């Protein structure tokens, strides 16, 4: 652990190579930070000025860094980095899933769901553990983004209660708020619109 | 856009520097991919073998890469990369918030909450927009991790309904499942434990 922890320090202490390595280390560190910031907030547009002032480097340098991140993200099939030109432009990360990953996840879910132990009294299928798994719902949210990106939603709507986790993770991928439909209105939530309908289920 | 998109290709086409740059580009690309994988699944332990076989490189190379990521993550205050030694060991990302970031977020929330337009009939405070914002709840979840990491929870428990988004994002930071307490039991969720108590509110 110590060896890893001191790796950067050792590099930085070599005076002959200092200038060169410092630059390399700085670029790599910037790339780590930018990757984290971009992938942590999917669909959020960041201006190049934002990163430029964050790291105290020229916009052209940030552009080069983004080029590397862009290529890596595509090469490893972990999404897309999109750059939008112009004054209102910037860069954002879209967590698109590849067809292979979607296939893999769907197969995993099928295996989980066909487990006979899931059948509970009354013939219902127990699914709460799947619906309340943050990691799984993050992956499913990314699939919704991949399939529905063209529809550019303003909100993700869900009916309480068990749909909320998936709605949250889908909304995170789209970077839009969640709207929750309640079965009953609450005084704590202000004025409401009520719709009565005949349910098919 | 094209310029950025082709950046990697241009570098790769310089024959004299090919070998050198290829290596550098490969390392940087690996670091981008590893940063994404680690930060996207907080608290998930990955063995060095996992990355070693994913990228087809030696474990010592992966160790060096992790050293760079570790340092960058600390330097930019975006969490901690923890390496656990031994056969069952590996590496994981903990999205700890710095005191400055926590302070900043709390101040932002205070400004939002003191907006007089939030007071709705009956004197209640409207908060649903905040509670259902994926980005905000991700940040608050990271604060819960920072403050409560020592308690090592097995699950994050919440009472339906409005607590679910925050519980999901906290559970994501801790990498544990969410348990939802319902006001009424449902036949679709199997056997249940009921507790009656006198509420103070």
Descriptive notes:
Two copies of one chain form a homodimer. With 201 residues, chain A is mainly α. Chain A folds into two domains: 2-94, Winged helix-like DNA-binding domain superfamily/Winged helix DNA-binding domain (Arc Repressor Mutant, subunit A, Orthogonal Bundle), CATH 1.10.10.10; 99-189, Rossmann fold, CATH 3.40.50.2020. Helices cover 52% and strands 11% of the residues of chain A. The first copy, chain A, has helices at residues 2-13, 18-40, 48-55, 59-75, 99-113, 128-131, 134-148, 164-174, and strands spanning 80-84, 90-94, 119-120, 124-125, 156-159, 178-181. A two-stranded antiparallel sheet of chain A has the order 1-2. Chain A has a two-stranded antiparallel sheet with strand order 3-4. In chain A, strands 5-6 form a two-stranded parallel sheet. In chain A, helix 8 (164-174) links the parallel strand 5 and strand 6 (178-181). Chain A is globular. The model of chain A is unreliable at 1-22 (pLDDT under 50). Chains A and B meet through helix 1, helix 2, helix 4, helix 7 and helix 8 of A and helix 1, helix 2, helix 4, helix 7 and helix 8 of B.
């Amino acid at each position: 652990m110590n060896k890893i922890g001191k790796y950067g320090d050792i590099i930085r202490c070599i005076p002959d190579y200092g200038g060169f390595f410092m630059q390399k280390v700085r670029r790599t560190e910037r790339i780590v930070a930018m990757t984290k910031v971009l992938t942590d907030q999917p669909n959020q547009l960041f201006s190049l000025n934002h990163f430029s002032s964050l790291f105290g480097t020229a916009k052209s340098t940030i552009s080069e860094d983004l080029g590397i991140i862009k290529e890596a993200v595509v090469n490893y099939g972990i999404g897309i980095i999109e750059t939008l030109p112009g004054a209102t432009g910037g860069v954002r990360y879209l967590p698109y899933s590849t067809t292979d990953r979607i296939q893999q996840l769907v197969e995993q879910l099928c295996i989980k769901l066909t487990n006979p132990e899931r059948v509970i009294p009354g013939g219902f299928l127990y699914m709460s553990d799947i619906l309340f798994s943050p990691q799984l719902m993050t992956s499913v949210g990314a699939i919704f983004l991949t399939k529905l990106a063209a529809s550019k939603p303003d909100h993700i709507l869900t009916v309480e209660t068990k749909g909320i986790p998936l709605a949250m993770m889908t909304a995170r991928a789209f970077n839009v708020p969640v709207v929750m439909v309640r079965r009953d209105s609450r005084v704590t939530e202000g004025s409401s619109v009520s719709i009565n309908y005949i349910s098919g289920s």
